[in-house]
Amino acid sequence: MVGFASILSVSFLCCSQRSDPQTLVMIIESSPTNLDPRVGLDAQSERIGELLFDALLTRDDHLNVQPGLAERWEMPDPLTYVFHLHHGVTFHDGRPLTSRDVKWTFDSLLDGKIRSTKTATYRSVDRIDALDDFTVIFHLKEPNATLPWNLSEGAIGIVPYGLLDEVTAKPLGSGPFKFVSAEPDKEVILERNDNYWGSRARLSRIRFIVVPDTTTRALELRKGSADVAINALTSDMVLALEKEPKLAIERAPGTILSYMAFNLRDPLLNDVRVRRAIAYAVDRQPLIEYIWRGFAQPAASVLPPQSWANNPNLPPYSHDSEKARQILDAAGYRPVNGIRFHLTMKTSTEESTRLLAAVLQQQLREVGIALDIRTYEFATFLADVTSGAFQFYSLRWIGGNEDPDIFDTVFHSTNIPPKGRNRSFYSNPRVDVLIDRARRESDQNVRKRLYTELQELLAQDMPYVNLWYFDNVLVHSKRVHGITLNPSGNYNFLKTAELQ
User: For residue 410, which of 262, 287, 296 has the smallest C-alpha distance?
Assistant: First the structure.
């Protein structure tokens, strides 16, 4: 803390200089990899893409889908979705947006004209019909209640008919901002779409500057050469910048989940009693205070509390070292010279992950578990996680856990690697049944009951230890007003922000 405060007292010449007082300068950690909304998967591509492209549907603060380009929709039967488009929507070059563009966007994926991993998301779609200019019909191969979520902002946006790879070089959408230019590893520039069909943005221009180094990001903000950064600083840096008279901090609950996952093929961790004991041994509160300075909230489910499907009544795994010891004793794992058994936790070299592992090592030692830590570069670490070469690890879900279809992705037995991302190798027939029924059920109240039971089973089986949800923390200059954070931590606040 002292070291960082002293760094802030130094003026760095390397920081960017503000060139246009009417331009909002926002710091991002890396360049978007592809602003074609059919292709880009990284956070920057999706979040900047949401400003450039409109989707059929949007998402509210409870992670429900709401009207977007489609002003309304209906399901005449479980295999058919009918969307009715707004009239008068135009792309940035002036051409009208019609159902033909919607059909093309998805056909270009499904027919293989565009190569993208997003294609698999729409595998339940049989065909798409453009009934007239403002009516588009999705015909499904099988019922899929998650389709509307995957047609909403953040998942995909609508591109003009006939465009293929050229969207990567020059993104052309219908959103509130238009693409101006991009230089890899340096900047992306957008300007306001004055002909936008919805509420017009108040910012005339946005310049996203790429600043990979965390300390430099803080210096840019302090110097005034940047206006905004969201979830891009350490907690200590946020606390230091909070004292700066020209800066303000916005904070709101977020959906990004930090979790620990077990390999259930491991002889020790296949025993649910061991997993439950570890869950009781973990004390989240000092971890939240020590590593994140309070900028996080304890998690009980993979789904964030904002989700309509979240179960708020899950049985708690509050910190209880004595209970953890009792469970391990009863299971026959009695200590020898204070050690019951060894476990290995694999981590990446990222600082907060290493700190988490070090504290967990101390907490597990209290119940007689010796934790060995193995640290690797992220690519190596992720390769081991993907291949199942681990006992347990910690990672984050960013965005993917906002829809309950996450349960299919990470807990359905058919998604055990290499077919999917059930990296815990978890299998429970009842869980599979609940997931399958919920995916085919169109009544959200029924789906909620199914997901409630599902979360209770997962809390009992404990393939994951859910640690915490990160708060969204935005630092901005006081010349920026009208900021409203949403749970996802995306860049939609730029649609209402203004400079004064």
Answer: 262
Q: Is 112 helix (H, G, I), strand (E, B) or coil?
A: coil
| pLDDT score recorded for residue 20 | 78
- The whole-angstrom separation of Cα 292 and Cα 295 is 5
CA–CA gap between residue 46 and residue 53 (Å, rounded): 10
As a whole number of angstroms, the distance between CA 180 and CA 345 comes to 46
Of residues 242, 225, 246, 224, the one with CA closest to residue 233: 242
94, two tokens: 């002036």
**pLDDT tens digit string along 69-112?**
999 999 999 999 999 999 999 999 999 999 999 999 999 999 99
CA 105 to chain centroid? 23
Pick from 359, 365, 362: which is nearest to 338 by CA?
365
N-terminal to C-terminal alpha carbon distance within the chain:
32
The residue whose two tokens read 């936008």 is 196
Query: How far does CA 388 lie from the centroid of its chain?
Result: 23
pLDDT < 70 positions in the chain: 1-19
- Note the pLDDT tens digit of each residue in 414-463: 999 888 889 999 999 999 999 999 999 989 999 999 999 999 999 999 99
Core vs surface per residue 111-133: b (16+ CB within 10 A) or e: eeebebebbebbebbeebebeee
Look-up: residue for tokens 């984050």?
Answer: 396
Beta strand 341-348 with 392-397 is parallel
Residue among 53, 122, 153 at smallest CA distance from 399: 153
Helix (H) or strand (E) holding 206: strand 205-210
Three-class SS of residue 136?
Answer: strand
For residue 364, the 8-state DSSP code is H
Ranges assigned E (strand) in 220-359: 228-230, 247-252, 257-262, 296-298, 341-348
Q: What kind and span of H or E run contains 137?
A: strand 135-140
Select from 79, 85, 80 the least CA-distant residue to 57.
85
Residue 267 phi, psi dihedral angles, 5° rounding: -55, -35
The label of the residue with tokens 């890396």 reads 30
Decide the pairing of beta strands 135-140 and 80-85: antiparallel
Give the span between the Cα atoms of 391 and 378, in whole angstroms: 17
C-alpha Rg value of the chain to the nearest Å: 24
What is the DSSP-derived secondary structure letter of residue 432?
H
Beta bridge partners of 481: 498
Residue 467 has which token pair?
Answer: 């640690």
DSSP string, 33-101: S---TTT--SHHHHHHHHHH---SEEE-TTS-EEESSEEEEEEEETTEEEEEEPSS-B-TTSPBP-HHH
DSSP code of 52? Answer: H
